[in-house]
Amino acid sequence: MPDNALPSATRTVAIVLAGGSGQRIGLATPKQLLKIAGKTILEHTLHIFEQAPRVDEVIVMMNPGFVSDAEAIVRKAGLAKVSRVLPGGTSRNATTQLALDALSHLPSESTNVLFHDAVRPMLSQRIIDDCVTALGTHRAVDVAIPSSDTIIEVDDDVITDVPTRSRLRRGQTPQAFRLATIKDAYVKAWDDPDFEATDDCSVVLRYSPDVPIHVVAGEEQNMKVTQPVDIFIADKLFQLGTAATPEYTEHDYTEGLQGRTMVVFGGSYGIGAGIADLAEKHGARVFRYSRSATRTNVANPEDVAAALEQAHSATGRIDHVVNTAGVLKISRLDRTDPAEIEEAVRVNYLAPVNIARAAFPYLAQTGGQLLLYTSSSYTRGRAEYSLYSSTKAATVNLTQALADEWSEDGVRINCINPERTQTPMRSKAFGEEPAGSLLSADKVAHTSVDVLLSDLTGHVIDVRREDPAGPAAGARSREQEREGAQ
How far is CA 132 from CA 58, 216, 289, 380, 482, in A? Predict the structure, then answer.
């Protein structure tokens, strides 16, 4: 059957390959069970497929010694699409065959299968969608990105060839197939006594050479955690921002907020007021606290504790705690008054610490979430922003650390990273700015509520006026870079 006349697939199954042991890089625990941003790498990966609209079922092929660990992760995370956790084989090829055996009850011509490395936890929904779309006209699909490095062939440490770089790609996953195609290739492969392959597309290429393998564009972020340094890089990539946040409808807001209790520190104006207004509109009981309206000083642990106790006494529960309070002082550190230094540290960092400590027991009762706020200036300390940048970086690290600490208690914590936003704090620092150059506080408020209603934890969520991967990416001016966010 020609590639452009394939029958419509009725089911798409994702096979998550999690058979690694970690021993090659000296780890006692498989890489897929290491934690990044409050969750194991495996859980991050499974959540991606759980949220993929065009994936119907997920099967995990796990290292045989850790099947129960993976089952516990699936059960605790409520991953409804994961139908089975099966032990993998002693090789990549054996594991693929075991997965194909598990799919033997499905119609081969109308089933799509996506094989994905568990240790690629930053796969985008765009890649998944492109793979499934490509399987409408192709029987085999790979994901790849251009090579930025020159690739050389060597023999005994001597270069034997330098292939043309423009024709080279770096392969990623998922690798996607019509089930009939990959099954047929493996039937032929096992008849070869010398059969050995490191991936599934090479099996199709070698044993079903008449099947063209279409290539879908991958992404640099879709990296594979292989070496110890990759764990560090992946952790930083999670820290630098997550764009794939859920977007809820007005009906979803009402269902998720009706009867819930929300406490907003810094709720009198700007982003905090926008969140409080939106939550109240959809049926939440909202308690707003600020220095101007309620004389609540977030840097004072007693004030924070009293505010939370008041909200809990009135409603019997606290589901969401939000802290948008902050101060922005632009000056050289050596010219900053000691009292201003102390205020910046207390409000921008000690306040989130105090709020987290005080809010935890209430949120543990409801399985709730704490939401903090950072700034794009946290990624790099800038002149005259030393206090602001460093305290915002500390807030990001606090978020990730607490996500890990609180994971067993069912309490979530996330951090919003808005680009330059129209707020009273910003206006006070910078005065009037060109219309349309700033993000609206309402947009940040809507994204904040989306995150509060999600099951995300340990994430830094970017909020931007434009898609950072779009045509306008990288167009920020020197002044914008200097000024940072908010």
Answer: 14, 10, 48, 38, 42
Please confirm whether the linkage preceding 174 is cis (ω < 30° from 0). yes
Contacts of residue 149, Cβ cutoff 8 Å, sequence gap at least 6: 165
What type of residue sits at position 233? I
Q: Is the dihedral of CA 285, 290, 293, 295 positive or negative?
A: positive
Q: What is the pLDDT of residues 137-194, one digit of tens each?
A: 999 999 999 988 899 999 999 999 999 888 899 999 999 999 999 999 999 999 999 9
Asked if the structure places residue 185 within a domain, the reply is yes
And the tokens for 15? 């096979």
Domain match, 54 and 100 both: yes
Asked if the structure places residue 244 within a domain, the reply is no
Neighbours of 119 (CB within 10 A): 26
**With left for phi above 0 and alpha for psi between -120 and 50, is residue 316 left, alpha or beta?**
left
Q: Which token pair is 419?
A: 């680009």
Is the Cβ–Cβ distance between 67 and 23 less than 8 Å?
no
- Look up residue 346 and give its DSSP letter: I
For tokens 């690629």, name the residue. Answer: 120
Strand partners, 159: 154
- CB 140, CB 204: distance < 8 Å: yes
**140 and 207 in one domain?**
yes
pTM: 0.72
